[in-house]
Amino acid sequence: MLDKRYQVFISTSGNEMQPERIILSQTLVGMGFFSWGLEQRTPLSTAFARRQIDDCDYVVLLLGSQYGEQSVSGVGYMHLEYIYAVTKQKPIIVFMHDDPDSRDPSLQDATPQLRDKFKEFRQLLQKEVDQVFSYRSLRDLEMAVRLNMPQMLERYPVTGWVRPQNSQSLHDEIDRLKARNAQLETELGNRKVDPFLSVPKVSMHELFAFEYRMHAYQDGNFKELKIQKKLTWAQLLSILGSTFTNPTPEEFFSKRMNEYLNETGLEDARVEMPRAHAVARSQMNIRALHSLKIQMRQNEWIVPNGRDDRQRLLWQITPKASKLLDSNLLDADRIHQFKSAY
Fold first, then answer.
1. Half-sphere exposure (CA, 13 Å, Cβ side) for 27?
2. In terms of residue numbers, what domain contains 52?
3. Is there a single domain that holds both residue 322 and residue 259?
4. What is the DSSP string of 249-284?
């Protein structure tokens, strides 16, 4: 068996969680994980935190009874780290205190506004994250980590890190998996495709419904909105097509969709906030984004095309999609185009 290690990014609300953070870090290290994260946050540290999230295998959120330090936008650094981890499709596990109100008043937010933000963020995590576990004491936290982190490895397997001296074992494992893959492909080639396991193709003018979140600004304040939106597949191909003309990393699916939603979201925001003057931080629902990629591949509009020097999976539109983009078939639905910077 390969001697693997996994990198875990730890996000907490701030200094009041120092005892819990120490227990969490020590427990993870004892289990063979590498743990890292930022204890002190500033606007300058945000980029560094994002690089750490990019390079990590798992993200752990440790929530006590405070919303935590806030960025200049009024959103907590922990909240921002969570949003970024979601956009990067990182496996997330949350350990939250079972009864925040029972904690010492010195460990709780000082203002009603921050307490409201904390409650909203806590409810958001409970709703959106599949792996959420509660604790009451430091001992509870340690046991919850020991019990649930191994299950994360099973539910969300990742490559991890292998010691260099084990490289021969890694090559042997790769050869074994290649042989097994070839065997399975041969077996599958002799079977009929189960129609219930395949995604049906869609027509250009069918609608795709999805949810996205945004920050809408009105009268000097912002509010996070959840928007239900529908676009035709012709519109979606028009939005994404030019981005993937050349082989482009998979993360640009979310980047381009979110850019488009930022550009066009003001009209959506004004349904609920008529005086809204700007929107930002639009984020397409991660499950909808996954469905979008699957459907575009099923329609033979986009295919994987190798990896770059950072081992990121690259995608490129097919000749079939290129012909659609060059024809007038999309003209009725053609909307804002983006030029890929990649």
1. 21
2. 4-155
3. yes
4. ETTHHHHHHHHHHHHHHHHHHHHH-TT--EEEEEEE
DSSP-derived secondary structure letter, 100: G
Q: Does the pLDDT of residue 331 top 70, yes or no? A: no
Instruction: Residue 38: name the closest of 58, 11, 19, 18 by CA.
Output: 11
Contact criterion met (CB below 8 Å) for 225 and 273: yes
pLDDT one-digit tens code per residue, 261-285: 999 999 999 999 999 999 998 999 8
Q: Tell me the pLDDT of the chain averaged across its residues.
A: 85
| pLDDT, position 149 | 94
* Within a domain: 124: yes
Residues 8 and 151 in one domain: yes
Residues 143 and 268 in one domain: no
Is beta strand 4-12 parallel, antiparallel or unpaired with respect to 33-36? parallel
The C-alpha angle 92, 281, 283, rounded to 5 degrees, equals 50
**In the predicted model, is pLDDT for residue 130 greater than 50?**
yes
Which tens digits make up the pLDDT trace of 289-329?
888 988 999 899 999 888 877 777 889 999 999 988 887 55
- Looking at the domain assignment, is residue 238 inside a domain? yes
**Domains in the chain, number:** 2
Compute φ and ψ for 284, nearest 5 degrees: -75, 140
Please give the model's pTM, rounded to 2 decimal places.
0.51
* More reliable by pLDDT, 185 or 159: 159
Whether residue 97 is found in the same domain as residue 19: yes
Exposed, middle or buried: residue 341 (CB in 10 Å: 0-12, 13-18, 19+)? Answer: exposed
**Which tokens belong to 189?**
């080639």
Neighbours of 342 (CB within 10 A): 15
